[in-house]
Amino acid sequence: MAQFAGGTGTEEDPWLIRTAENLDSIRYFLGAEHADKHFYQVYLIPLWNYGDSLWTPIGTDSLPFMGNYEVEMYGSDYKYDYYWNISYTTINDPLSDNLGIFGVIQNATIKNVQIQDIDIIGKGSCGGLAGKSTNSVITNCSVSYCKISGTDNDIGGLIGTSVDDSISVCCVSQYHSSDDRISGVNNIGGFIG
Questions:
Q1: Which of 127, 132, 147, 148: disulfide with 159, CB 3.0–4.6 Å?
Q2: Residue 29: which residues within 8 A CB-CB, separation 6 or more?
Q3: Per-residue confidence of the chain (193 residues) as pLDDT tens digits?
């Protein structure tokens, strides 16, 4: 059953996302009937040891995430703003498409999502933020320390398959080893497959 840290899901009073369980509860609000729902992440969310250590992406082709997801800024200095991140995620589903924190998003708004340390093994349309995104507005999102591999096409650091999205101020960065990589068959990109 859905559980959130507060809020009512409206723009003025979004559901608060503070834990992995809160993030997982978003999957109860997918599809067009929930396109008006708003979610606001207010704390760091590590996903290690969640659901037998494997994360199940939010949203499918038949029921995409169509709402609004934003992350709170917790600090700022002269050069950067800092946002709560989603970290230590493993998705190991080599026979499935559309893998990422979000599986499929459509007509959604995603803002300030910072993903760190994500390891995905899938088939096609795999990306750190979303496996597949269509007609969505994605702003100030990043993926770092990622290892994303697929046995098919459309593998990217941020998004695997992106169709008619508006993407701004987003990046993918790798810092520490050759084990950080993005691989697949065709349409492979460090940013978008």
A1: 127
A2: 2, 9, 37, 67
A3: 679 999 999 999 999 999 999 999 999 999 999 999 999 999 999 997 665 558 999 999 999 999 999 999 999 998 888 999 999 999 999 999 999 999 999 999 999 999 999 999 999 999 999 999 999 999 999 999 889 999 999 999 999 999 999 999 999 987 555 555 888 889 988 889 8
Hunting for tokens 């998004």 — which residue is that? 159
